[in-house]
Design a protein that fits this description.
Layout: E1 3-8, H1 12-22, E2 27-32, H2 36-44, E3 50-54, H3 62-70, E4 74-79, H4 84-93, E5 97-100, H5 105-125, E6 135-136, E7 143-144, E8 177-182, H6 190-203, E9 208-213, H7 220-224, E10 226-227, H8 232-241, H9 247-252, E11 256-258, E12 261-264, H10 278-291, E13 294-299, H11 307-310, H12 320-328, E14 331-337, H13 340-354, H14 357-360, E15 363-371, H15 373-376, H16 380-392, E16 398-401, H17 404-413, H18 417-420, H19 425-437, H20 448-451, H21 466-478, E17 489-490
Helix pairs in contact: 1-5, 2-3, 6-19, 8-10, 10-12, 13-16
GO molecular function, one term: ATP hydrolysis activity
Biased composition (Basic residues): 478-495
Biased composition (Low complexity): 158-167
């Protein structure tokens, strides 16, 4: 039984590999693709079980690799000899095997042996073919499930005979948590809850990252007063798609807003939503767990995934930023408005959330926002809790009182609620929410640098404290670009 192979390689390397595959009894090159579009079409049609692709292929990115992996093909990255950047990019994309482009027949035969070894590893990992994904078995028309292995690590250099024995490896540090703040349509105050929750988590001593993943109307930057906004999340997603998102890059795109609080701003224009590819965002959320103890993601409202019903090819997915964050979250904070219409939307939205298998494993915290006697009815808060328990099975909802004057003052000043009205009843309720969401008891940072969220080797000692903003304002005035209104902050991220 032969294994069908697809190739998308430049120059003489492809001819050498096709000839070497022809000498192997197990491999059969069925399509030599001219570009990425042809490779994707052939893979999605089930023509090949192995894809040999060059890291220099035009338009190749993380989303394209995810599409190829979804078709079930075993991905073998072919890097140019001596090009470490190309090899690192292929590793970051998570190819199943990484080889160097051959220059002669002997090197091509070595590549074929590596491909066969990768196939053997896959068969040993999943001999019964019971994991996710699909791959066509050569000689049959039946699909065999398959799940790709994790990203292959960089190979370690062999130790010399005189080298010291390796020290025992320390256990990896605990990774951060992801908190997705979601709410149904109708502006229930999702962004206000997300911003205040992130600020209170930072005040508790947790390194916090606030990300705006709303592809319909992102407003985190405007809420916290970031001027000259550049969409930091889009920039991070582009870096992830190109395989270059590391911690310093993510920190550069998420400037400090307050001690311990970073902001990854969202799209300034809703029509730029295609820049937030789902595969790239998965990488962003994974890197965010290493940058911050808690990542708070302000998501959109829509959970629909019917794009495939309208397209007969790979469909753009506007809601993938929201659904991907919900699926990756450790905790989902569902925000609803405390009025009859808002309660009805929240109950239906919670039922829709429960039907998502990935999100169903996350911890759910329900927040009723804008609680006021004029809409709660004669029973007040007790009536709201009884309605949630009866129709949604929610018993311990967090109720946030309406405090329009304090929230309006914070919004007009472009500052956090805890800075403008620390005694606000809305803020006190959200402090309690932060206590529920906080992963572990945090210790206040001992130094000013640590309090500002400075990470060794990432921030270079710069912090976004209030003093830093004053120096920034002075620099802006010297350059003739004065801040528009008092209290506003300027984002340091580059688009």
């Amino acid at each position: 039984m032969t294994v069908p192979v697809l190739t998308a390689l430049p120059g003489v390397a492809e001819a050498l590999l096709v000839a070497a595959a022809g000498r192997s009894p197990r491999l059969d090159v069925v399509r030599r693709c001219a570009d990425l579009a042809e490779l994707l079409a052939a893979a999605e049609a089930g023509l090949g079980s192995v894809a040999l692709l060059s890291g220099a292929l035009a338009h190749l990115d993380h989303d394209a690799l995810a599409a190829l992996r979804g078709s079930g093909a075993l991905l073998v990255g072919v890097a140019a000899p001596g090009d470490e950047r190309e090899a690192d990019r292929l590793r970051a994309w998570g190819v199943d095997a990484l080889v160097l482009a051959p220059g002669d027949d002997a090197a091509a035969d070595a590549v074929v042996r590596e491909v066969l070894a990768a196939l053997a590893r896959r068969e040993a990992t999943d001999p019964a073919g019971t994991t996710g994904g699909h791959i066509r078995q050569a000689g049959t028309g039946s699909p065999a499930p398959w799940s790709p292995p994790p990203v292959p690590p960089r190979r370690a250099e062999p130790a010399s005979s005189g080298s010291r024995p390796a020290a025992p490896t320390e256990p990896p540090p605990a990774r951060g948590q992801l908190v997705a703040v979601w709410g149904p349509t109708g502006a229930p105050g999702r962004t206000t809850v997300a911003v205040t929750l992130a600020a209170e988590l930072a005040a508790l001593g947790h390194r916090t990252l606030l990300a705006d993943a709303d592809t319909y109307g992102g407003s985190v930057a405007a809420t916290v007063g970031m001027l000259d906004e550049a969409p930091g999340l889009a920039a991070a997603a582009r870096a992830a798609a190109q395989g270059g998102l590391d911690l310093p890059t993510l920190a550069r795109h998420s400037p400090l807003l307050a001690p311990g609080l970073r902001v990854l701003s969202g799209l300034a224009r809703a029509d730029r939503w295609p820049e937030l590819g789902p595969a790239a965002l998965d990488v962003v959320w994974d890197r965010a767990r290493d940058l911050a103890a808690v990542t708070v993601v302000d998501t959109g409202f829509c959970l629909e995934e019917d794009e495939l019903l309208s397209y007969d090819t790979r469909a753009p997915r506007r809601n993938a930023a929201t659904t991907g964050a919900l699926d990756a979250a450790d905790t989902v904070v569902a925000v609803g408005s405390a009025d009859p219409v808002g309660l009805q939307r929240l109950v239906r939205g919670l039922d829709e959330l429960a039907r998502r298998p990935a999100a169903a494993g996350a911890r759910l915290v329900v927040v009723l926002n804008r609680v006021r006697s004029s809409t709660a009815g004669p029973g007040g808060e007790r009536a709201l809790r009884e309605a949630l328990e009866r129709y949604a099975g929610v018993q311990d909802a967090v109720l946030v009182p309406e405090d329009r004057p304090a929230l309006d003052a914070a919004l007009l000043a472009g500052r956090l609620l805890r800075e403008v009205a620390p005694a606000s009843p809305a803020r006190r309720a959200l402090v309690g929410l932060a206590g529920l969401v906080a992963p572990v008891p945090a210790t206040p940072a001992p130094s000013a640098g640590a309090a500002a969220g400075v990470l060794p080797g990432v921030d270079g000692g710069r912090g976004g404290t209030h003093g830093g903003r004053r120096r920034e304002a002075a620099g802006a005035a010297r350059r003739g670009r004065a801040l528009v209104r008092p209290g506003r902050r300027r984002a340091a991220a580059a688009d």
